Amino acid sequence: MDRLKDRLDAAERSDGSTASYYELPAGAAQLQDLISHRDMNAQIGEIFRACYRYGRVSHSDRLRDAKKILFYAKAEVERLQKIESTEKGVQS
User: Is residue 13 part of a domain?
Assistant: First the structure.
């Protein structure tokens, strides 16, 4: 079966109120703790970092952060599309 579909089916669901997936893990003190806890890949970690610091640091203004988010989001979409097309090819 499609691994991506399995992951989505197994994802936590929310009724619109506070959800457990928004709770911080015990001992989380830095963004890296959250990135590690959620087992984020490089693209998602970079997006998460850029979103968090968005327009707050002198070396990366909002436009640079937005471009970085877009760059890594496109890379993640391409990665997922390759996985999906590979899985479809295996199933055929």
Answer: no
CA torsion sign, 41 to 47 to 53 to 57?
A: positive
The answer as to whether 19 is a domain residue is no
Domain that holds residue 53: 33-92
Q: What is the pLDDT of residues 70-92, one digit of tens each?
A: 999 999 999 999 999 998 887 75
| φ and ψ at residue 19, rounded to 5 degrees | -120, 150
Within-domain flag for 55? yes
Q: Name the pTM for this structure.
A: 0.74
CA dihedral 24, 25, 31, 33 (to 10 degrees): 180
Measured at the CA of 10, the angle between CA 6 and CA 45, to 5 degrees, comes to 90
Domain count along the chain: 1
